[in-house]
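User: Second chain of the day. Same drill as before.
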Amino acid sequence: MAQPENSTVKALKKSNVARYIQLASLFRNRIESGEWDVGDKIPNVEVLAKECGVATMTIRQSLDILQSEGLIERFRAKGTFVTERPNKDIWCEVKTDWTGLLIAQDNAVIEILDDKPNAQLPRRDGYTGNMAPSYRHLKRRHSRDGVPFLLANVFVDERVCKDIPESAYTTVTAMRLIADLPDQKITDAHQVVTIGAADLETSEALNISIGDPVAKVQRVAVNQVGDLILVANGVYRGDMMKISVKLR
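Assistant: Same format as last time:
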């Protein structure tokens, strides 16, 4: 007679993300919460495989990820032990006010991964303003202390690019690129934040696992004549960012 599925097995079946990646996240959370504390010996592969309803090879693959992150260490004939908790230094704050959107993160380094002139905006609903004939498209990666935390696709109206110093593209926030232009008055600006999961491109650029939580942030700006002069689509690592909203 088949045994009823436990909550872990049911949860694993709800996602299309590879089982070993899901399990790595599950076990990482156990270490973070203290359920598996530093110095503890964790259950063996066979016990975890039975609990999670997967093959022992899948458990070994998930533990390989944790070992590569320095969270566990395996000893022949002794077992697997927790050596460190995940780093949860949540310092990247996504601002929700105009002034905050103009301030770069402290000690952040902005790297341009791709730069394409005469680009078109990706087809998407919800844009306000008149689309420009073409945009300069920059793919930028933001890092601090060598750790990437934001991957952004920035589209700037090609007609205003001549007034933006080249140095600005690697030193200021996307909104700051157009906020200080003398002939441009921003009459409409907003941002939308949604929670999602890392895809292949994001996982490679931000050095996280496919399926890890991310925050997707879209920022747009419209000028005094109704032209959409900036669209910035950013993806933040979920484990490094927070959103703070001032209510009063």
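The chain has two domains: 7-82, 92-243.

User: Great, on to the next one.
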